[in-house]
Amino acid sequence: MGFMAVPEWLSEHPSAIHIDHRDATGGRRGQWPAWFSPHHREGLVAHGIETPWEHQVRVAELMHARRHVAVSTPTASGKTLAYLLAIIADTAPAGVPTNSATAGAPPDGAPQKAVGNGIPTDGPSGRAAPGSAPGGTGAPMGPARPGA
């Protein structure tokens, strides 16, 4: 595998003390941390993440131990999941269904808040009535701009 060369102007700069080129390597799979619940594991597997990468496990273990960590890996290598594993385990209760009837529903009080802000709703769903909110369909929210 190849590597991205350091530009000559940078490699020859007096402040460049050492440059080390390493060929790209394939990722190495790790094991799910013992503290990561089977419920959460199953959810990730259902979305195509069979096992974490080793660097994800190392980052997650440090995060779970409340240690500071910096991770630097190429784009799309799983940095986000690396830190989210510990956050998911520590904040999302295992066993709470994520596909329940309330998933994606407006929070309690949403219709009242919308009405209180002068945005008409279409009733019990709490969604803004067509044409009443920016990006809606139907009549514009206000008068057209002059010259429009």
Automatic annotation (TrEMBL):
Keywords, comma-separated and alphabetical: ATP-binding, Helicase, Hydrolase, Nucleotide-binding
Keyword Chloroplast attributed: no
InterPro entries, alphabetized: P-loop_NTPase
Biased composition (Low complexity): 123-132
Claim: Nucleotide-binding is one of the keywords in the record: yes
Stretches for region Disordered: 94-148
Highest taxon in the source lineage: Bacteria
GO function terms (MF aspect): helicase activity
Name assigned to this protein: DEAD/DEAH box helicase domain protein
